Amino acid sequence: MAEAELMKEIERRRTFAIISHPDAGKTTLTEKLLLYGGAIHMAGSVKARKAARHAVSDWMEIEKQRGISVTSSVMQFQYQGYCINILDTPGHQDFSEDTYRTLVAADSAVMLLDGAKGVEAQTIKLFHVCRMRQIPIFTFINKMDRASKDPFSLMQELEDVLGIRSYPINWPIGTDGDFKGVYNRQLRQIELFYGDQSHGQAIVSSTRGTVDDPVFKELLGEPYYSRLVEEIELLDMAGDEFDLGKVLKGELTPVFFGSAMTNFGVGPFLEDFLKMAPPPGPRAFGEQIISPEDPNFTGFVFKIQANMNPNHRDRIAFMRICSGVFRRGMQVHHSGSEKPVRLAQPQQLMAQERESIEVAYPGDIIGLFDPGIFRISDTLSTTPGLTFTGIPSFPAEHFARVSAKDTMKRKQFLKGITQLAQEGAIQVYKQPDIGVEEFVVGAVGVLQFEVLEYRLKNEYSVDLKIQRLPHRHARWIVSSPAEPDQLNLTSSTMLVHDGRGNPVLLFENEWSVNWARDKNKGLELSDISP
Ligand code: G4P
């Protein structure tokens, strides 16, 4: 592969995730983006995924029927010379670590808000992960065809709740349920909204190049015209300057108003987004920084998904390519083992279809058949000795005591729990003095308990007894004035050990965390595992 060609492939790639609170319109927007890419036949499949979040059992059913994970699809399509990878983050009410890890594989994020609701709880959580990584965040404010919050107060909310400055690329006209369209600030044109039928394609340009063009006055009428002129003046005067450097550092978010359902604003958004969003950049593997144009192939595993189809008991490891060229059948070093690995059955995950691939480039995600050798963060590279360090472990917020209903199934129970812990689906703790027939399991989202129950039954034939615990915080003991079991703690605080034998305290609330610190001078706690 000529160097120039690799450069060209990198330059044209955009790998991003859409983050949003359920119901903001992520399924709808994804579908519209795919339609732009000419992947029309996929629209239905995206819609079908929506069923996923209604009930866990539905979701499992879908997984089974398709034989591929619907929660972790990667959709690739081409548009105007760009190669676009959309990473799907599950739309469940509950967060799992998967969602966060997926963001590590993305180079930028689209934050989708419902114009009537603004910044919602799950948007905040996901935003913070993007912030941690300092990736660019593009905001699409959706459902403008309906009454929405005032656009200035939406900008204020972005700043107050998320702490990010914003730059509106366009500005909505009529936000009381009387949506007329948007004013495109850069092109100085009004893009008119005609409702469902015309898909908002009509564009009226200013002949004068300013918002006070009489053409607009006639077109919009009052009070819309005067209000627009006023608001644009205010924005130009008091708003932030556009600064691509700040956008790329995640300090300023470009804001687009639109309506995914009617397709209004989706096309202009996609085009601006593609121009501004970065192609794959360098990634840190410990001390080493690897550039995408490095001819040596490097990728890391960010997600492992067991296949629910009983006919194919396989697992898929999702790998994000960071440098060089991936070729089917290539032999690589694997950070998790001493042995070389041949990447013989790579799969590209296009919506729900598996497609075998021959070649892939930085920014692409491929599914690798996993005979049980891969772990989260594993690095695959033609360069030996590399280990990806960019996937943080997220503190569990929900805990449960689990055991097998049938004590005769202890062996399978242990195997299943160990397997799921290795996949990163759950965190496993042991209570002192309790044998391997019972564990304390931690999860980032409560849905993970249901997945655990389902998978143990289906893959290991073990019926689980799950007893939810009231604890909400796990803290590792960094240094302690006494043996962990001698500490002065509230009666509800539980001492457990993580998979590596480190002592961990589980607390019901922040108050008991502080209590432990106050009553035990010199006790140092951390919410990150050592
Ligand atoms: P999600 O994946 O983020 O959870 O949201 P999804 O796209 O499923 O959209 C949630 C609801 O919001 C859907 O309505 C969808 O049609 C609607 N919606 C999405 N974009 C827009 C928009 O731009 N304007 C308006 N007015 N509505 C929008 P639903 O009634 O829950 O489902 P359905 O009847 O469309 O199946």
UniProtKB/TrEMBL annotation:
Which Pfam families does the protein's record reference?
Answer: EF-G_D2, GTP_EFTU, RF3_C
Which superkingdom, per the lineage?
Bacteria
Q: Which GO terms describe its cellular component?
A: cytosol
Residue ranges constituting the Tr-type G domain according to the UniProt record: 11-281
The record, for PROSITE patterns, names: G_TR_1, G_TR_2
Question: Is-annotated flag, keyword Cytoplasm?
Answer: yes
Query: Which keywords accompany this UniProt record?
Result: Cytoplasm, GTP-binding, Nucleotide-binding, Protein biosynthesis
Give any single GO term for biological process.
regulation of translational termination
Q: Does the keyword Transport apply?
A: no
Q: Name one GO molecular function term.
A: translation release factor activity, codon nonspecific
Kindly report the protein's main subcellular placement as a broad class: cytoplasm
Q: Give the location in the cell.
A: Cytoplasm
Q: Where does GTP bind?
A: 20-27, 88-92, 142-145
PANTHER family membership: PEPTIDE CHAIN RELEASE FACTOR RF3 (PTHR43556:SF2)
Q: What is the role of the protein in this entry?
A: Increases the formation of ribosomal termination complexes and stimulates activities of RF-1 and RF-2. It binds guanine nucleotides and has strong preference for UGA stop codons. It may interact directly with the ribosome. The stimulation of RF-1 and RF-2 is significantly reduced by GTP and GDP, but not by GMP.
Xref: NCBIfam families: prfC (TIGR00503), PRK00741.1 (NF001964), small_GTP (TIGR00231)
**Family assignment?**
Belongs to the TRAFAC class translation factor GTPase superfamily. Classic translation factor GTPase family. PrfC subfamily.
- Know the name of this protein? Peptide chain release factor 3
Protein's organism: Thermoclostridium caenicola
